[in-house]
Amino acid sequence: MSLNSLSKLKPCDLSAIELAQYPANNMANSQLHWAVIVARYQNQWVFVKHKDRTTLESPGGKREPGETIGECAHRELFEETGATNFNLEPMATYAIKLPHGELSYGQLFFASIDSLGPLPSSEIEKVVCSSKYPDAHTYPNVHPFLLDQVKNKLNLA
């Protein structure tokens, strides 16, 4: 499955995936297709709601050609939350085993957001800050696992 076809996967297509975690920064940028950002703002977790979905998700997205995975995370966090002042830290590399058995690799980041500006025009409808994980999540087999990795690594509640 090509990177182009990976970008066309719908959220429900990832319901039976398997996850594996690796140390941060152990792969070349060319191997990392995705950035997911677990973020905090004013001691709350930051989630976004896509305009075409009824569920919440962590900010993130696909790396664009010529972009490093760090640049991707920076861009996606701004585009999906309006974050203007933040610290971004790589936490881990993760692999998703897709239904056809192929692995897709991504980089997990943690962002401590100091200020949120207006939400840029994009596919994101709104930003939701919460002290707890949402009941309805777009990727229930992926993002809770990634959030737990950040919480455990940083000793956060």
Automatic annotation (TrEMBL):
Question: This protein's superkingdom?
Answer: Bacteria
Residue ranges constituting the Nudix hydrolase domain according to the UniProt record: 29-155
Q: Which cofactor does it need?
A: Mg(2+)
The answer on whether this UniProt entry bears the keyword Metal-binding reads yes
Q: Which UniProt keywords apply?
A: Hydrolase, Magnesium, Metal-binding
Instruction: Tell me which Gene3D superfamilies the record gives.
Output: Nucleoside Triphosphate Pyrophosphohydrolase
The yes or no answer to whether the keyword Magnesium is present is: yes
State the similarity comment. Belongs to the Nudix hydrolase family.
Q: What is this protein called?
A: NUDIX domain-containing protein
- Source organism: Reinekea marina
